[in-house]
Amino acid sequence: MTSDLDTDSETAHALFQSYDAMEGVHHVPPAPAAPATWRSFAWRVYPGLLTAATIALAATWLAQHYGSPVMLFALLFGMTFHFLHEEGRCVAGVEFSSKTVLRLGVALLGARITLGQILELGATPIATVIGGLLTTIALGALLSRLLGQSRAFGVLSGGAVGICGASAALAIASVLPRAPESERDTILTVVTVTLLSTLAMILYPLLATALGFDDVKAGVFLGGTIHDVAQVVGAGYSISQRTGDIATYVKLLRVAMLVPVVFTIAFVVGRSGAAGGTKAPIPYFLLGFAALVAINSFGLMPKLALDAINDVSRWCLVTAIAALGMKTSFKDLAAVGWKPIALMIAETVWIAGVTIAVVKFA
Q1: Total domains present in the chain
Q2: Residue range 200-230, pLDDT digits in tens
Q3: Which family is it part of (predicted)?
Q4: Considering the domain boundaries, does residue 30 fall inside one?
Q5: For the whole model, what pTM was predicted?
């Protein structure tokens, strides 16, 4: 039984043998024994965890000073340190960061949402979000087969586009069946969805104006289509305060869909036996997500604590992204070709088209 300190599959290191490793190490090291105490656990984890956190810190500094997506910086910086995941003391900490730290960051996202924010939107935006999400995932699953990609990648990319970009990709990837290409597909999804979201932040406000949307319609359109929360905020408030508020609430509704979607995927994977013949693990981190939504909805947590939780969540996700970058080779990523990117562009165009149709004619 593997732990969050072990690599995702026995072939993970074997894959690197064909990638011209920097140090010429071509053996598969034995899986480390489970830690007997918290002290030994920390001793095994801290080199890789500290490296991932340092990369996250550097990426955050650059993002703040140059106004670029922090997730993209963390990914690219992490990939330059890929050799640290081939062998040595950093492997266990990198695995821990890409799994446990990731789940913690996703769980803490629940502090951003209240049920009141969702209900204030009314029926039409809620139906728009749900319809756009479900049809985008279905489109991803269908087109992935036509383009020669795995169905898992179609679900992963569709969920990332339909819910909340990089965060959704990480959460969905944590319950999908493990395969040799799992990390590569996750990294590719995060990179592509971040770039598409950045382009949407620039172009969609212009499109909303060209379509003659008022502040409310523009807010629903931006919140229902742009992938990442930060880009939704940037695009919405570039039009008006009202548009920014509505766009943020609609986007948070999409984030809230993370819980039922990931639970459903985990259930289907477990029932189908795709998780290696065993039941898929229960995504307990989503229970934490739901609990924080409930606590925040009833006003049981002070604003100072909520702000602290949001900061911790952001740092966990950036650190996890850096670790995933360290697990991925540039050569491996470049080998996937144009089809996965075309798939994600098609999903992005689809969800934008669905949302525009509802906003304009509903």
Answers
A1: 1
A2: 888 999 999 999 999 989 999 999 999 877 6
A3: Belongs to the UPF0324 family.
A4: no
A5: 0.65
DSSP-assigned letters across all residues of 187-250: HHHHHHHHHHHHHHHHHHHHHHHHTT--HHHHHHHHHHH-SSHHHHHHHHHTT-HHHHHHHHHH
Here the tokens at position 259 are 């819980």
Domain membership of residue 63 as a residue range:
15-25+35-361
Judge whether 186 and 8 are in contact, CB under 8 Å. Answer: no
The count of other CB atoms within 10 Å of the CB of residue 14 is: 13
| CA 1 remoteness from chain centre | 26
Chain segment 132-161, per-residue pLDDT in tens: 999 999 999 999 989 888 889 999 999 999
| Neighbouring C-beta atoms of residue 288, cutoff 10 Å | 17
Segment holding 114, helix H or strand E:
none
Those residues with Cβ within 8 angstroms of residue 100's Cβ, 6 or more apart along the chain or in another chain: 4
CA distances from 308 to 112, 215, 252, 303, 343 (A): 11, 31, 18, 9, 37
Phi-psi region of 322 (alpha: psi -120 to 50; beta: other; left: phi over 0): alpha
Contact 140, 155 (CB under 8 A): yes
In a domain, 8, yes or no: no
Instruction: Report if residue 176 sits inside a domain.
Output: yes
For residue 242, tell me if it sits in a domain: yes
Measured between alpha carbons, how far is 181 from 335 in angstroms, rounded to an integer?
Answer: 11
